[in-house]
């Protein structure tokens, strides 16, 4: 939905998301890794995710595994300074919630202290203890099942999940267990549409799909993917709504050409001296140096 920028936007809350799920209103979620993207997205979307996908989208890594808590803090703080109306969710990066409840709570709590409204973590049954620990500390948790990028090495690459009876039923069981542990929503990534539809049907909490078909409670795509800012191969589930990479390069090329032919800056981009000062600098000559 598009909001008018002339009126203050009402903050999106977790209870509002649940109400939207109950009423059938679809949720729109995208990523932001800096203040510019957050300001562009905020009047339009319901949830902004400061994702560990910043690693491969912006920082040049092959995957999300090298992203640290310190990196996440840096990008989260940039987005939080814009004071978005959207619910602001921070990804918990690899190893930030794997080594014990105390470290998990400290890392997640640090995200909330820096402006996040909630955290997102990947995994199913193995992460139930951590989810419960966070929820017990009043830290809202969004779960993430299916193609979980932090498990790329175990999965043998970025592959669709839930295509066998065992894995499909395990996903449904994990989704139910995460809901019971207190997750307020689940991201379902890279799974067959029918499986995501069934999960959405049996869960009471909202599901946010990415490569999971049209029947989830909402959808998420990476900001740069929607705007066509990424090079090379795009996943099947990505729909780019403009070719931002080409558009930006064309604009930059026009600027560079104007510089090279002396057309930039023009008079409208220049500051001017008062007449008397122009005469003074015109008459200036260097003093004799010793």
TrEMBL record:
A GO CC annotation given for this chain: cytoplasm
EC number: 2.1.2.11
Pfam families, sorted: Pantoate_transf
Family: Belongs to the PanB family.
Name the record gives this protein: 3-methyl-2-oxobutanoate hydroxymethyltransferase
Listed pathway(s): Cofactor biosynthesis; (R)-pantothenate biosynthesis; (R)-pantoate from 3-methyl-2-oxobutanoate: step 1/2
GO biological process, one term: pantothenate biosynthetic process
